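Re: that chain you flagged

S.,

Sorry for the slow reply, it's been a week of failed gels. I finally had a moment to sit down with the sequence you sent. For the record, here it is as I used it:
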Amino acid sequence: MTERTEGVAAVERPPAPPTRAEQLAQDAAAAAEVRAHQTHPDVVALRVERVRAQVDRLCWTGIVLGLAFTMTNVQWFAAAGSVAWSLPWLAAWFLDPMVSLVLLAILRAEQVTARYQVPTGPWTRTAKWFTLAATYVMNTWASWAAGSLSGVVLHSVPPLIVFVAAEAVTDLRDKLTEAVTVAFTDATQRAVHERRAPRRKAKGRKLFADYLAEAREAWTPGVVITPAWVRQATGCSRGLSSRLAATLSREEGQS
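Prediction finished late last night. Pasting the structure tokens below so you have them in one place:
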């Protein structure tokens, strides 16, 4: 009756907090699982895709703002002193959107072709450069005619920013597409290599019951069960050896 009561008490005893070594083992297992997900080929490719989307949004925002800034200058150039709200004055507002929409259509098409690395013909670049050059000339003509260097600088910056961004965004999309391909390929090859590489048989983390079973097998009648003996027999930690010694001593009647 006494042995049964002691056995029940031992079972109902709350487990001791994990030791430093056990906590580190759990942290290492969690870190390995997180790293396995982070280095997955699809996750790596998705991360680069997100960067490419951010680059696209920022470049498009700058291009649209630059074209919006040039609209009033182009209208003033096309109106050529016409009376406000007259037919020529109203028609002049359509000149800049006409040029800008063609440019935006070309850039939008290059966004798709660059994504799949499909080269475009010479007419595409010619049309892009022509629209940009036309926007620049119409923006700075009055400043050049008046000999105002500050006006030339002021009205040159937005068209040049649009021109540089239009050229850079195409190259950036192409390089980011290569980056996605390279990242996905490298991650896939690494995953395949890790699967094929010879691995040592992983040892599962020992539980209290595993150490206790080893201690039972190692114990022989006449051996005094102490924490030091348990550590020698099972290789457990110092904190766990006391619990193992106490449990085994109760079982063998040494307590």
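What I noticed first: The CA atoms of residues 3 and 251 lie 8 Å apart.

Talk soon,
D.
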